[in-house]
Amino acid sequence: MADTGASSSRCGIDTVDIARIERLLRDTPAADLARLFSAQEIEDSGDGAGRAASLAARFAAKEACAKLFPRELALGAIEPADFSVARDNYGAPQVVASANAQAVLGRHRIRSISLSLTHDRSSASAVALAERGETEVPAVGRFLYRFLPLRRDVVQGNLRRVFGDTVPEAEIERLAQAHYGHLARLAGEFFRFRWLSAAQKQALVRVENVDAFIEARAQGKGILILTGHLGNWEVATIAGIANFPEMRGKFHFVRRAIKPAWLDRLVTRRFQQAGFGVLPKRGSLDAMLERLEQGDAIVFPFDQHARPPDGIEVDFFGHPAWTFKSLAIIALATGAPVLPATAWREPDGTHVLRFDRSMAPIECDNTGEAIRRNTREYNRILEGLILRHPEQWYWVHRRWKRATPRSSRAKR
């Protein structure tokens, strides 16, 4: 059973017969067993007389965790194998969630899942207790939300579209207020950053999972960096990429012009001074291909609305959204790895730039279908990046608006 209400916690319980797991161990090939249990779980269970009981308790834990999310379980968006059990330094069981499970936890704003495992001679049981987190709201966020609510209807509408089925309305309001606090800090950082020394800028940023970047670069096909308007992307990239002096002049941002024009000139100048190239979203395909041939990195902010013919309609957080197809087209044409990257601000004001493992293009016989599948996969990856720190995404953007073809607009 599971508590699916709007309370701060929910509980899942499951019991498994140990004899069932004994039969599973006896009759199931090792390759199939690995689809049910992680390598760590199989190792931790040992090979002695208590192996079946140990794995039965872990199997019950997987089922209990999945029961916390009955809607997603029924829709096939999650399954027990998306959860595994590890032990901390004190021997206490800890939940390890797959990327799928992490996305579901993020949609429900689940801060943690606690486990209790037990077994006797005939059965094993597990209790999973999920605790919701509450977004912390700075005072400036509450003030702006009430007195200077820039596009508040858009922000609230976007948040309800993503979280409306999974969290209470009070949490959606806190997320909106925290987002306004984030925008206020962005504005302050934008003007403060230009006066910092190079050492001060570099000290502001921590780069995580650098190995993923190095591995992608080692493929020799250039790098397509998938990201969005997350955290303070300008601070995180300009300061963070300073850790790669050999890449100076080899990072290029694909972006639309910013309005007003003076702000666009200022941002472009900052990027160029830091050693970044800037490429327009339209008319720069040949330049991108040339940069990739030279082993450069092309940065694609992938979270903006794209009307046809530049975009195609694919799901984004469970709702159709017109999305740029150029990233998929280039990845399929060149074989360049797509490397997810995200940025966020820590509570102490420092910033993190994190790379995740790169992915190869999804190939299929039909080119149009290949573009659609890859574009949807990029949106799915972006969803996970946003859910890590949702208040620091750009909710004021009308991401799900209806598409109007350029030809139709021209006739008006």
Radius of gyration: 24 Å
CATH architecture of the largest domain: 3-Layer(aba) Sandwich
Q: How would you sum up the major sheet?
A: 7 strands, mixed
Strand order of the main beta sheet, please?
6-14-13-7-10-8-9
Structural class: alpha/beta
Strand proportion: 15-25%
Number of contiguous helices: 17
CATH class call of the largest domain = Alpha Beta
Mean pLDDT: 90
Tell me how many strands there are: 14
Termini Cα gap: 57 Å
Please mark out the parts with pLDDT under 50 across 5 or more consecutive residues, or reply none.
Answer: 1-5, 408-412
Q: Rough shape?
A: globular
CATH topology of the largest domain: Glycerol-3-phosphate (1)-acyltransferase
Notable traits:
412 residues, alpha/beta, Ribosomal Protein L22, Chain A, Glycerol-3-phosphate (1)-acyltransferase, 3 domains, three-stranded antiparallel β-sheet, 14 strands, disordered C terminus
Describe the structure.
With 412 residues, this protein is an alpha/beta fold. It has three domains: 9-132, 4'-phosphopantetheinyl transferase domain (Ribosomal Protein L22, Chain A, Alpha-Beta Complex); 139-189; 197-411, Glycerol-3-phosphate (1)-acyltransferase. It is built from 17 helices and 14 strands. The chain has helices at residues 18-27, 30-33, 39-44, 51-67, 70-75, 99-107, 139-147, 152-163, 169-193, 198-203, 210-218, 233-240, 261-273, 285-293, 326-334, 367-388, 406-411, and strands at residues 9-17, 83-87, 93-97, 110-119, 123-132, 205-208, 223-227, 251-255, 276-280, 297-301, 311-316, 319-324, 338-345, 351-355. The strands form four sheets. It has a seven-stranded mixed beta sheet, sandwiched between helices. Strands 1-5-4 form a three-stranded antiparallel beta sheet. α1 packs across α4 and α6 packs across α16. The longest helix has 25 residues, at 169-193. The model is unreliable at 1-5 and 408-412 (pLDDT under 50).
